[in-house]
Structure formats: structure tokens, C-alpha cells
Amino acid sequence: MHNTTSYHQGPINIATFFSTFIQNFKGADHKMTFSAGRYEDKKVSDALSLIFIGALIMIPFSFLPSNPVAWVVKEKECGARHLQHISGLNYLIYWFCNFVFDYCAYFITMILCIIIFAIFNRQEFIAPDRFGALFVLLLVYGVCSTLMAYAASFLFKEHSNAQNTVMGFSFAAGFLLIMIVYILQQDEDTMDTADLLRKIFRIVPSYCIGEGLFALLLLDGKIKVGSAAGPWDMDQLGWPCVYMSAEIPLFAAIVLLVDNPFIKRFWERRKYDRKLSPIIDSDEDSDVEEERLSVYEADKLDDDSDVVRVIDLQKKYNTGKVAVKGITFSIFPGEVFGFLGTNGAGKTTTISIMCQSFLPTGGSASICGYDIVQDSKEALACVGYCPQFDATLDLLSVEEHIELYSRIRGVCKADRPAVIDGLLSLAGLTKYRKTLASKLSGGNRRKLSVALTLVGGPQVIFLDEPSAGMDPVARRGLWTSIQRAAVNCSVVLTTHHLEEVEALADMVAIMVGGSLKCIGDKVHLKNKFGQGYEVSARVVDPDRIRRVQKYFENEYPGCAIKEVADRRIVYEIPNDFGFADIFEGIQTKKKSLGITDYSVAQTSIEQIFISVSGGLV
């Protein structure tokens, strides 16, 4: 019976029920003794305090490995790393310098954390018997976490993703995983699982630092787990330090093996076949065929008069796409070579191969007589490269950029001031010498990229759309700089501004679908592919237009009107007539026709490009 007026009757009935239930299994004479204890509020408070302190401490140590990985991926993302490689920077020196800087930054942060512990009198960390263990733990973690960040950098292409991922992973490993293991340790049934997870999680440096810091917190005598002899005990800071010490050479080996250029070349060479048969178009242009045979002959005779020689160069990607289909050409000293093509034609792929971003699938290429596959280091020493996108570092000034690449190129200290001043003047950046790259306009960043190309006086410079993002005035200033630079080196130029090729190039090659469609000097191409001449004339009054039309129709059969506007008329005259004859004829009839001024021009490179590429601009 249950009496609602007796408040204790409910619990008594429940106790009687369970006692009877247990007696059926254990027997009526079995005794079970329980004692009611007071809920320990202070223990709960201390546990919550432990969790809060642990989370707070792990925040700075979560940020630390995310900074090195962000900068390394940023340099790879913007192309600065490849530009440094082209300039001659050894990969061992690159990683060593990064490590020294990053570890110094970490060490400063570590000292600040210790100072904060001292300010708040956290004896768990700075007590005389624990400080040494804490110091060693933090020192080892700095080395291990930095190298782990470098190893992780190969997994990312964007620095923001790298930073956020490593930061979140470090915090989760250093705090959340610690909490999971700590909770599992409180129950005897899950103790073995907790020990197994500890051994697995210790592979991650952030878990080791978290485990070590929590071990120091648990040694304060208020909350105890087991009976630790001291901070150096293996179950406290011993195993975390041992694991991280063992991982240091492991992460270092991963970084140096993955980034080793010789190993990367070895794997790439497995797909390279120098004698792979070229893919030759059945309708190959006669000039392209003549260029190919000429290069074959020069290669056969060991004629080294050219500075760039490309023979049957091919590139096939893993997707099956053939980006370059056996192109052949050569470039001579002091020559500006305009390399044109539609988007996806293969021109950037060709330049990337020449600058050793990756190896070709077949064929060969040499720079200054050095094969880019067999003598890659020597070939790169002759190359300057301006990538399609700026490979500048935001926190370096214009002057510091040139200083950095001068050091990498091996320019002696006494010559560096003159080199810096000369390149700043050549690029028109003298007044911006102290300006950070991040503060420069898009046009000035392109100028800086071109200036870096010229550091060290390379014999061949590759300019991949150097004037992208520039206004017309700045673009013409850049043209002047390129013309001055071409006095001492050969220039390979790709651009979408075809007037740039018109103004600068000596030789022009047009690629479509991975193949060369035409090659030759500008005048030859205009004569071969052009529609003739374009004559623009202005008359004194609109009434004279009809008289001018009759003159052109009578003197130049086959001509066609392109434009008539007010007092201006534009005609297209076929190639049957000579350039000088057209000039002489118009000059003779100028007064009688009422022409105030006129111009005669061959078909532009732009028109030829549209014609050759089939309008796929």
C-alpha cells in the first residue's frame, strides 16, 4: 500500500522491491552494504576548473603550428617558392631558414606563456620540481609541431584552408581527445581502451603537449589519477616527450623526401620518353615544317648558335589530355619571341616545362645548350621567369624583394646596391622602393615581377602575360623596359594584348590546340596570312568622299571599303599591290582628291591571329 501522506513511503517501497528482487538471485542471507556520502561540490568545481584551464592553455599552442603551414603553403600558392627554386635556392636551405625563423617565433611565444604562468602563480607548472619538465616538454613540442606543419603543407593548395585545418586539428587533438581519454580512464571497464587510445593519439604532437600539460595539472594534489612519482614519470611527461622526440626525425624525413627535387624528378622521368614520336599535323604549315627541319639539322650538327631549342616537345596529362603535341622551334640571342595562342592552346604549359614546373612527356628542350631534363640545374641558371600571376610576398617591400633574389642568385654584396637601383629604375619603381608588395597597385606588382625576372642577368627570360592588369600608360612603360632588357638577353613573351607583340616581337609563333600553326617574323606572317593593306584617308569635306572612292576602285581592283564616317574613309587593298606603290599613288593624287592626311598599314598581328586560330580568341 502506498500512503500519499507519508513522504518517505515511496523510497521505502522501491528499496523493498529491489531487495526482494535481489534476494531471489543472491539468496535471503546475502548482505549488500552501502553508505550514503555527501556530494563533493568542490571536486566538481575543481574538475570544471581543470577543463577550463586546459582549454585556455591549448589555445596558443593550437595557433603555433598553423602559422608555419600557412606561410609555406602561401609561398607555394602564389608561385614564390617555384620562383626561388628557379633562382637557385637549394631546398635544404629553404627548409632550414623556415625552421629557424618559425622556431624563434615559437620560442618567444613559449617564454611568454611561462611568464604568464609565473604572473598567475600557477605552481602546477612553475614549481621547482616541475619547471624543468615543462621547459623540456615545450622545447620538444616546438620542434615536433613545426616539422609536422611542414609535412602537412603538402596536403594543401590554399593557405587559408591549411591554416584553419591545422589550427582546428591541433586544438581538437590537444584538448578534446585528452578529455575523451580522461573520461574513459575514470571507469575500470574502459581503462584498457583509454590506454590504447593514448598510444595511438600520441602520434599527434598536439595530443602530446596536451597530455603533458594535463599531467602537470593533475599533480597538484587536488585531483589525482593513479599515483605518479613525479613529472618525469613515463606515465606523466615521459611518454609524451619520448613520442615527440621520435617523431622529429620522422616528420623531417617526410618533408625532405617529399620535397626532394631529385626524387620528384625520378618519378617524373618514368613517364618521360625523349624519343617519343611527335604528333605532326597532316596540314602542317610550310613555315612550321621548315622551322622543324632547320632545328633538326642544327641539332644534328651540334650548332649551338641558338639559346633555346625545342624539339618535338610533348605533354600529356594523367587525365589523358594532350596539351602540347610535338612542337619544334628555336630562339636566338637578343630575340623577342612572341608566343601567342588561344586559351588552352598549350603556350603556358610549354613555358612551364621550360621553367621546370614539370617535365615533358616526350621530346626535348634545351636552354643555353643545357637539356632541361638531364642538366636541369644548369638550365635553370640561365632562366628568368615572370609567372602569369604575381609571385610576390605581401610583407616584403619592393627593395627587399630585389635584395632577396639578388642573394639567392649569388650577386656579390658590393654589387647589390647598384643592381637594386638599376632594376628599380628600369621598372619605374624607384619611388616605391620602401612600399610593401601588398600596398602596390596591380600594375606595379607586375612591374616588380618583371624586375625580379632580370635579377642576376639571365640569358633567357620568360614573361607570361607580364602586362596583365596594367593601364595603357603603364603598359607602354613596361614595353620600354622589355626592349631595354632584350639588349642583353632573349625574351619569350606570351600576352593577350596583341599590340604588345606588334610593338616588341621579332619572331611570332601561334599555337592552336597544342600545335604550332604558324611561325616567322612579323612582316613575313603579314604578307603570308594578311588580307593586304589597310589605308585610312581623311578628306577636307564629305563631298570629296565619292571622288576618293572612284580613285581606289580604279587604281586598286579588288579593294573593299571597311569604314566610312564623315570625312574619313578606310579601304582594304589586296596584297597584289606593293607597299611603296600605294604610298606613291596616294601621295601623287593627294591634293587633287582633297586628302588632308592618310596612313597605310599592313594587316595587324591581331587580324592574323584571328585568321589562324579560326576566330577562337
TrEMBL record:
It is found in: Membrane. CDD domains: ABC_subfamily_A (cd03263). The keyword Transferase does not apply. One of its GO terms (molecular function) is lipid transporter activity. It comes from the Eukaryota. Keywords: ATP-binding, Membrane, Nucleotide-binding, Transmembrane, Transmembrane helix. Residues 308-538 form the ABC transporter domain. PROSITE patterns: ABC_TRANSPORTER_1, ABC_TRANSPORTER_2. Coiled coil: none annotated. It is a multi-pass membrane protein. The keyword ATP-binding applies. One of its GO terms (cellular component) is membrane. The chain crosses the membrane at residues 47-64, 92-120, 132-153, 165-184, 196-217, 237-258. This is ABC-2 family transporter protein/ABC transporter, putative. It comes from Angomonas deanei.
